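Sequence, please.
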């Protein structure tokens, strides 16, 4: 087999349980920049491959990444640690790799690794370095330096590393410019092992272990291969539960401003992704919702070039009338929709927590425009936020009922609980928000995710006095999930739609019975 210079490994969270679906694999999405990074190394004559551990498990549950490393003999192994949910699985694999291949240079990157970079090196001797923030130029320079046998890595930007037992922190000096982003290719899928399986079956939020690839696609996906389209980087506002806000970006990645990719380059990415079998394009980058000129230009080009595609667009605020008109003209298909996140039903709380706040009146006026233009929409809410009172929850319930009654174009109304995210305002200053959390440092998150089944629906925080008489985290979670189940359950047999709470609970019960029966049959 052909040897490699560099092997990039994505480790999902492999052990998870949720009542309606049983055991599943989670954190399946590759970080959006990972293929671009692999392609950059490849084009600079550093042979590189990406392996997704979840994909390999699906293809062959006996797959051994250690055996694969033995065959490929890479000099560098990079693990993405973007989402904190990966912490235990990724570092457990890092330990096994380093024990088996001590001469391999083992590198971490991603948002969580960047935030906890020094602590990770202090606690995990198997990790040789962490690239903080944006990694393109730093990783390329590091790979070239290691290929030349260099030991002193002081010139590599954004690198935290070891030298003679000391942890050294190089300046956080690289942030990708528009020109840098435009030079990257995010669609070199042949660099990803078994990429066709990823595109068809794994590019969904979760993969249920108890059923086949085909049934996963039919039962639990949106039934359309979805490509997460890279459009740029950065965020100009701050939401209280989000780690991607502008203060955290400045601290963790050094990014001071929003940068968009060129429209020509985005069009090329769309065409290439379509050629690999993608059908729907997910856009989760809307830094200036009140100024949609970039998207109006992009949509105009898509129409001019007669590109046939579906689009799921997540609006960070409320889409403007001109955006709605252009969206409908560009994506008239039944699978295209705009996602809006009111988050709460209270105007008061939305002002506190949301970077782009708006009133319920503004929201309903926007839904009127969407209905007039026959644009489908999904709405996303949450419960369990700081300063939320019983009357706020009732506002959310009544708002959802009103929307279900008046807006048939709203296909899904989904309500989730939140989690404690490292680097978010809640995490940095929990006292200000009246939040209690056991998750302060990396080892807290690492241990938190070591239990396998407990952390998917856990929150990582609790709010004293949110429920009368509840003053510990376990009871808070129990009561919050009970309320969510009773008032906001949205499970529907068609993943593209959502149910009213009553019917969602009935489906959850039936689904749970199915998995119990399947377990008994298995015994």
């Amino acid at each position: 087999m052909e040897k490699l210079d560099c092997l990039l490994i994505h480790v999902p969270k492999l052990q998870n349980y949720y009542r309606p679906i049983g055991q599943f694999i989670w954190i399946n999405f590759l970080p959006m920049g990972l293929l671009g990074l692999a392609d950059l190394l490849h084009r600079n004559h550093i042979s590189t491959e990406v392996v997704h551990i979840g994909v390999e498990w699906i293809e062959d549950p006996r797959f051994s990444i250690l055996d694969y490393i033995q065959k490929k003999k890479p000099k560098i192994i990079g693990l993405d640690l973007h989402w904190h949910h990966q912490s235990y699985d990724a570092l457990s694999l890092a330990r096994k790799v380093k024990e088996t291949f001590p001469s391999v240079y083992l590198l971490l990157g991603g948002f969580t690794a960047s935030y906890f970079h020094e602590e990770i090196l202090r606690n995990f001797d198997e990790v040789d370095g962490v690239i903080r923030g944006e990694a393109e130029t730093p990783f390329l320079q590091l790979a070239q330096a290691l290929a030349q046998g260099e030991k002193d890595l002081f010139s590599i930007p954004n690198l935290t590393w070891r030298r003679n037992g000391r942890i050294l922190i190089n300046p956080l000096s690289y942030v990708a410019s528009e020109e840098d982003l435009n030079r990257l290719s995010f669609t070199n899928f042949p660099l990803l092992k078994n990429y066709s399986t990823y595109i068809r079956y794994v590019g969904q939020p979760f993969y249920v272990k108890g059923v086949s690839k085909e049934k996963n696609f039919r039962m639990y996906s949106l039934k359309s291969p979805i490509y997460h389209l890279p459009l740029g980087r950065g965020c100009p506002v701050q939401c209280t539960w989000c780690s991607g806000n502008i203060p955290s970006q400045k601290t963790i990645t050094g990014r001071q401003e929003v940068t968009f990719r060129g429209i020509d380059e985005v069009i090329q990415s769309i065409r290439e992704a379509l050629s690999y079998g993608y059908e729907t394009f997910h856009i989760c980058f809307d830094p200036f919702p009140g100024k949609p000129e970039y998207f109006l230009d992009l949509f105009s080009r898509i129409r001019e070039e007669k590109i046939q595609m579906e689009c799921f667009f997540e609006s960070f605020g409320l889409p403007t009338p001109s955006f709605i008109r252009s969206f409908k003209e560009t994506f008239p298909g039944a699978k295209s929709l705009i996602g809006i996140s009111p988050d709460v039903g209270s105007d008061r709380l939305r002002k506190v927590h949301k970077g782009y706040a708006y009133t319920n009146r503004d929201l309903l006026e926007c839904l009127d425009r969407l209905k007039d233009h026959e644009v489908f929409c999904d709405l996303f809410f949450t419960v369990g936020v700081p300063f939320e009172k019983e009357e706020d929850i009732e506002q959310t319930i009544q708002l959802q009922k009103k929307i279900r009654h008046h807006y048939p174009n709203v296909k899904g109304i989904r309500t989730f609980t939140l989690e404690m995210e490292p680097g978010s305002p809640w995490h940095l200053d929990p006292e200000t928000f009246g939040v209690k959390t056991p998750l302060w440092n990396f080892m807290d998150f690492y241990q938190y995710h070591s239990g396998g089944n407990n952390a998917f629906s856990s929150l990582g925080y609790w709010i004293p006095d949110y429920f009368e008489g509840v003053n510990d985290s376990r009871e808070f979670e129990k009561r919050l999930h009970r309320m969510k189940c009773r008032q906001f359950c949205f499970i529907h047999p068609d993943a593209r739609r959502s149910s009213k709470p009553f019917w969602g609970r009935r489906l959850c019960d039936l689904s749970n019975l199915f998995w119990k029966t399947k377990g008994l049959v298995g015994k």
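The two ends are 40 Å apart (CA to CA).
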